[in-house]
Design the sequence.
């Protein structure tokens, strides 16, 4: 019988979550079966249930893993002694890095969260709303300190998050742009619109 082979610094469950995220992105959450996830991992479906209870549990793991990573990074930026613009740059760069390094997981968290069962759906949406409010508060702080233009913080957050989500197009077509150029140019375009 085949066994799940975790990569260095990861567990068998991590391998299953990563493979599930790829299938959810390419096939859609509803169209993906546990049998397909098991095949992608290289085990029989019954063996998969030794590590995970359901497809819904996998979606929860993907969505909350992504949400927790973003929240942890935002907390670190908020607690940093840098000026507001540097804090926002850190957050933007992290969003870009996540879109490039953990694309499948971020894609699923951005699109398939609506399939989460309660109470997980409500918890996930509260976490997202809290994240957006905290990011807007960071921008408000920069406006008060006269480090940023007098802009609408909610519109700025919406613009930043929408721009980074737009990297889905780059992921699909992989234009002839280096990752560093892509990151630096995006940060430059987004921050210069806010800088006083």
Sequence:
């Amino acid at each position: 019988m085949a066994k799940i082979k975790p990569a260095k610094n990861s567990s068998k469950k991590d391998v299953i979550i990563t493979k599930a995220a790829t299938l959810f992105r390419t096939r859609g959450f509803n169209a993906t079966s546990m049998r397909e996830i098991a095949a992608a991992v290289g085990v029989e479906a019954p063996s998969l249930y030794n590590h995970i209870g359901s497809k819904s549990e996998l979606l929860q793991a993907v969505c909350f893993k992504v949400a927790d990573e973003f929240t942890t990074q935002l907390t670190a930026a908020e607690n940093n002694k840098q000026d507001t613009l540097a804090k926002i740059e850190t957050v933007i760069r992290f969003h870009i890095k996540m879109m490039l390094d953990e694309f499948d997981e971020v894609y699923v968290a951005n699109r398939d969260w609506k399939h989460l069962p309660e109470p997980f759906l409500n918890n996930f949406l509260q976490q997202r709303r809290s994240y957006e409010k905290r990011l807007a508060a960071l921008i408000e702080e920069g406006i008060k300190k006269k480090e940023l233009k007098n802009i609408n913080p909610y519109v700025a957050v919406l613009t930043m998050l929408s721009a980074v989500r737009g990297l889905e197009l780059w992921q699909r077509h992989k234009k002839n742009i280096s990752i560093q150029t892509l990151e630096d140019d995006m940060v430059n375009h987004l921050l210069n619109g806010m800088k006083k």
